[in-house]
Design a protein that fits this description.
- The protein has two helices and four strands, in the order E-E-E-H-E-H.
- It is α+β, with helices and mostly antiparallel strands.
- It has a domain at 7-71: Alpha-Beta Plaits, CATH 3.30.70.
- Strands 2-3-1-4 form a four-stranded antiparallel sheet, with helices on one face.
- A hairpin with a 4-residue loop joins strand 2 and strand 3 (38-44).
- The longest helix is centred in the last third of the chain and has 21 residues, at 81-101.
- It is elongated.
- It starts with 6 loop residues before the first strand and ends in a 26-residue tail after the last helix.
- The model has no long low-confidence stretch (mean pLDDT 80).
């Protein structure tokens, strides 16, 4: 029966993209970034350490980074969504109370100035 192999992404940062063709022998090329000069490779999880050491030996490779995604627990362990939402709700409530206390005075509440402020005129003495 068909068994699914565990895969992992490797991000290879390169000096130039001319040598992308050489990376095809290491794994499946999923993405090539022309702007940032990196290639996303998908390889078997068992071969990751060997391939990273081989890739680092090439002159056109700056750095090689492994994707941490397979190591991350998708259920977040014992943490629950309620904890995150409660903290978010508390923050929203605090912001509302701060906004209500710092509410600027409206036009009807402000004292009315009967005098119109006019710019001061500078008197120039003639000689």
């Amino acid at each position: 029966m068909f068994e699914m192999q565990k895969r992992r992404a490797i991000y290879v940062y390169m000096r130039g993209l001319k040598q992308v063709g050489q990376l095809k022998k290491f794994g499946d090329i999923a993405y090539i970034s022309n702007k940032m000069n990196y290639v996303a490779l998908y390889v078997n999880d068992d071969d990751v350490e060997e391939l990273t050491s081989k890739l680092k030996k090439y002159r056109f490779v700056k750095t090689v980074k492994e994707s941490p995604r397979p190591d991350i627990d998708p259920d977040l362990g014992d943490l629950h969504d309620d904890v995150f939402f409660e903290a978010y709700d508390k923050g929203q409530d605090e912001e509302k109370t701060v906004q209500e206390t710092e509410k600027p005075a409206t036009v009807s509440e402000s004292p009315k100035n009967t005098e119109k402020s006019q710019p001061e005129q500078i008197k120039v003495e003639e000689k």
